[in-house]
Design a protein that fits this description.
The chain is mostly helical. It has 2 domains: 8-26 and 149-229, Helix-hairpin-Helix base-excision DNA repair enzymes (C-terminal) (Endonuclease Iii, domain 2, Orthogonal Bundle), CATH 1.10.1670.10; 35-141, Orthogonal Bundle (Endonuclease III, domain 1). Helices cover 61% and strands 0% of the residues. The chain contains 13 helices and no strands. The longest helix is centred in the middle third of the chain and has 17 residues, at 89-105.
Length: 230
């Protein structure tokens, strides 16, 4: 479904309702989260749940390997063993080492994260194992740029709400949001967190429409209520 007339006010109202219902401040990435933790987490969370990432991060810390230098110095096999709880261990170890090499080529995190947004995004996308969602998560949460992150939760939620562009192309969805919302990093950060939290708890593959904070403005939710009442 497409809603070309969707306004900034409508999207901000959805955000307001999500904020009121979700504990955004308790989410794993905060406004001041450490860049390394964000970047490692963004790589490890691919195709797995955050709970598994937390286990992998804990293993890295327990091994004294939670640093850029450790990722560089460990062999792929050693790193894979530590991040195994996040799944695809050898593949993700290679991705972490590729990202670490990118940071080193730019003289450290300060040099990399200081690049202009378009240049930084291109550098991230040119790194093994870093796709658009991962790159934009790093831009938003580590480099602190006003870049809207789109994920499966976003597309599912807003499609059910009756908003968004046709199809599921990442760049189309990102552009759709950024054309309608103020370009503010903190707004994008909190919106992303709220969408993920809502997607995990309520707007799941089988949605829990009863009691949803968006039921009054959701096409899918209204239909579910009508079917229950009939």
């Amino acid at each position: 479904m497409t809603a070309p007339s969707t306004t900034s006010e409508a999207l901000l109202e959805i955000h307001r309702r999500l904020e009121a219902a979700c504990h955004v401040d308790g989410w794993h990435w905060r406004a001041d989260s450490d860049w390394f933790e964000v970047c490692v987490g963004a790589v490890l969370v691919q195709h797995t749940a955050w709970a598994n990432v937390e286990r992998a991060l804990a293993r890295l810390r327990e091994a004294g390997a939670f640093s850029l230098q450790a990722v560089v110095s460990l062999t792929e096999e050693e790193l894979a063993d530590l991040v195994r709880p996040a799944g695809m261990p050898l593949q993700k170890a290679r991705r972490l080492k590729a990202f670490a090499a990118l940071v080193e080529r730019h003289g450290g995190a300060e040099g990399l994260l200081a690049l202009p947004t378009d240049e930084l995004r291109a550098a991230l996308l040119g790194t093994y194992g870093v796709g658009r969602e991962t790159a934009d998560a790093i831009l938003l949460h580590a480099a602190r740029r006003p870049v809207f992150v789109v994920d499966a939760y976003t597309v599912r939620l807003f499609s059910r709400l009756g908003h968004g562009p046709k199809g599921s192309r990442y760049d189309m969805w990102q552009r759709w949001f950024q054309e309608r919302l103020p370009r503010k990093r903190e707004l994008y950060r909190r919106y992303h967190a709220a969408i993920v939290l809502h997607g995990k708890e309520t707007c799941r593959a089988r949605p829990r429409c009863a009691g949803c904070c968006l039921s009054e403005v959701c096409a899918t939710g209204r239909q579910a209520v009508e079917e229950t009442a009939s």
